[in-house]
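Let us begin with a simple case.
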Amino acid sequence: SIRIEQSRIQKIFINWFAAAVTGSAFAMAMYIWLGQTVLNFWLRDADIAAAVYPVLLVLLIGTLINVIYQVGYTAWMLEANYRLPLIVSGSSVVLTLVLAPMLVSRYGIIGAAAGWLSINVIGLLLSLGWFRKTK
């Protein structure tokens, strides 16, 4: 029945969301704990590693948020809800065009990375509607 299928899908989404949050938290903890050491080893230059570490941290946070918000994005696709992905994509383009120059001029390369973070936060916030439907 359709109700059973909807229930199974909701359970899959909850499990997927939990796995995404857990995996992202683990990846973030590992980067905070070992990132500087790994970058020093990999790049063989402590000054470059020190410059790369905070930029990569911001990019990693944005990417991990993207991993989490893909749960909601997939829900949109299953519901044939094409409006919200278009809103997120359009907002991402506009925010990048408007905010990136200001963020870069004020914060340098970290400001550029912050643009990636901000568009993924917007995607996450808009995509959490699926979670409300599972209650």
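The second case is a distinct protein. As before, the sequence precedes its structure tokens.
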Amino acid sequence: VVLDPIATFNQAIDILIQLKKEDNPEFPAQGYNEKLVVGSNVNYLNFPTLLRQLVETFKTDDTISSMRVLDFSREGDAIFIQYEVEGRLGDIQKLNTSIV
């Protein structure tokens, strides 16, 4: 299946938001630290650290000019992130993703 440019951009965004540290053997420091989220008490979840790690991951893709988190929410054991990503060509994607 060949993806059109928008679907390819969305696929890259989805891969980056789900990327955990050491998932990419070429760049093991990319992604968020899974230990911050999985198996930890959600009352102690460090949102600023998680946000910084996600922003740093998105900075590695040169097709993305900016990434902005609009909202963090928790439903049961899942953490949902509503975010906005702007591509280099000016297209803006608003997405909502569960990272756990």
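The longest strand covers residues 64-75. Helices lie at 5-18, 47-59.
Keep these points in mind for the review questions at the end of the chapter.
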